[in-house]
Amino acid sequence: MNGVRLNNRQVYVGRFKFPEERAAEVRTRDRATFTNVFVKNFGDDMDDEKLKELFSEYGPTESVKVIRDGSGKSKGFGFVRYETHEAAQKAVLDLHGKSIDGKVLYVGRAQKKIERLAELRRRFERLRLKEKSRPPGVPIYIKNLDETIDDEKLKHEFSSFGSISRAKVMMEVGQGKGFGVVCFSSFEEATKAVDEMNGRVVGSKPLHVTLGQARRRW
């Protein structure tokens, strides 16, 4: 059916491609041909003329634009479009990471819309998976833990107050950092644990126990 005319229109039929796949194809193709350069992290005094002066050293430009907000203040980023790919590539290689008026420039290939959308999807998916992996419940924070306390011992000390979805001692180079988190299934259980355990000596040290502010904050 590919190429067949229906109602005076030529039909295209092809294999379905996910947005990430199409974005990868665009990225691969554009790396060898791009002329549009994205620039960010410059000072508020940067305007179109100054930006053009900085980038014109690498070749003729078609357009140079500093992006501004509704009040006319620079947002700290802009775009430079060159006539040739070679000029754009040279500008990226030479200016990326260069310090201008105390600020280190980011200079790179300007992404296509489909690439930006794919990147946003990836970030959203990572955040969704991260949130999903966190156990629900009410956290309490424990400080001044004895060096002998590990995850299992911490859970054991607090298990009499209710259902625990997670108990974690923060570690550094294989040794406890002196504080940890216990997550209970309800606010009532967490509150009871704070009331009973705050100031109690476990190991050789009195605990400092406080209630977490909100679910999924740790």
UniProtKB/TrEMBL annotation:
Keywords: Repeat, RNA-binding. One of its GO terms (molecular function) is RNA binding. Residues 35-112, 138-214 form the RRM domain. The keyword DNA-binding does not apply. Coiled coil: none annotated. InterPro entries: Nucleotide-bd_a/b_plait_sf, RBD_domain_sf, RRM_dom, RRM_euk-type. The keyword RNA-binding applies. It comes from the Eukaryota. It holds the Pfam family RRM_1. This is Poly(A) binding protein, cytoplasmic 5.
